[in-house]
Amino acid sequence: MLTGPADFPRLIADIGGTNARFALETAPGVLDRIEVLACADYPTMEMAIRTYLADAGEAAVRHAAIGIANPVTGDWVQMTNHHWAYSIEATRLALGLDTLLVINDFTALALSLPHLPGHELVRVGGGEALAGAPLALLGAGTGLGVSGLVPTPGGAPVALAGEGGHASFAPFDERELEIWRFARARFGHVSMERMLSGPGLKLIYEALSHLAGESWEPKTASQISAEGVGGECVRCREAIDTFTAILGTAAANLALTLGARGGVYIGGGIVPKLGDYFARSPFRARFEDKGRFSAYLAAIPVYVITSPWPALTGAAAALAAHLDG
Ligand SMILES: Nc1ncnc2c1ncn2[C@@H]1O[C@H](COP(=O)(O)OP(=O)(O)OP(=O)(O)O)[C@@H](O)[C@H]1O
């Protein structure tokens, strides 16, 4: 289908387990009226969309794209870390849309990578990115999103739609084995997401306190990272150091799996808020601590994505590609 000015504005959304980010795309790649709604404030996704469109004063949207934090395997969508569930087709009809494209949020984020300006990327070690090689992407927020952008011969790169955040956590040392045991008693299978997420940071903090024989004061993930980075809470510092080390293991595993010599990109709601600490954290040393593949990993640059709304850019690109056939 060829598109023209009449097809704008388009509704673009990035929906995670905590935050639903909305925008109107008013011309190709131009995002306006960006708003963040708390998922918990709305009983359904459709209600959140209706609220956003009403607040934006926009009723005449025909095409929409949503990046959402769960696998998208058919018409029925069930979020992993929030209770929203819906039929894509029923939602499209209810909202009077011609097009409702729903893709995984990290697939959308992967599509944004070629569009991100250099000043919205903070490099953490490594050498030069290898042109034409796959890119790896992971990001901790309410859950752990994982994707990659893989080149194709002569065509557009393909963004992977996987659920790598639910692959098993691989402890690196005795301390992480103890944390794994603590988590195993609570959850059974311990996925990477059980560690690398806001709830995961809280779990690491609790596990470390338990292992030290201390009673722990309940803290939010934001408090743990702020007091850990600031140095006023020793156990919080240990927790955020452990979190970033485990992220190093996960990022290196993904880089090896994808052959991501084009670079590893880190998004999500947690790491970009850690500021300068992240470059000083155990992340990079752990990333390169891979035995016979240490030199391979040492060459790979890692970039923290500091763009405020990167997945919206990717969802808009996916919608444009879909409409242009
Ligand atoms: N400064 C911080 N330090 C640590 N954790 C934080 C910080 N700020 C937010 N969080 C945690 O990050 C999570 C929210 O992340 P994000 O904004 O990426 O949400 P989301 O897009 O809804 O999540 P997802 O896409 O993973 O489902 C919450 O668990 C919150 O506790």
Automatic annotation (TrEMBL):
- Record has 4Fe-4S as a keyword: no
A Pfam family found in this protein is Glucokinase
Location, primary (coarse class) = cytoplasm
Matching entries from SUPFAM superfamilies are given as: Actin-like ATPase domain
Q: Which GO terms describe its molecular function?
A: ATP binding; D-glucose binding; glucokinase activity
Q: Does the keyword Membrane apply?
A: no
Which GO terms fall under biological process for this protein? glycolytic process
User: One cellular component GO annotation, for this chain's record?
Assistant: cytosol
Please state where this protein is localized: Cytoplasm
EC identifiers of the protein: 2.7.1.2
Q: Which reaction does it catalyse?
A: D-glucose + ATP = D-glucose 6-phosphate + ADP + H(+)
Q: What class of enzyme is it?
A: transferase
- Which residues are listed for ATP binding in this entry? 13-18
Keywords from UniProt, A to Z, are: ATP-binding, Cytoplasm, Glycolysis, Kinase, Nucleotide-binding, Transferase
Q: Which family does it belong to?
A: Belongs to the bacterial glucokinase family.
Query: This protein is called what?
Result: Glucokinase
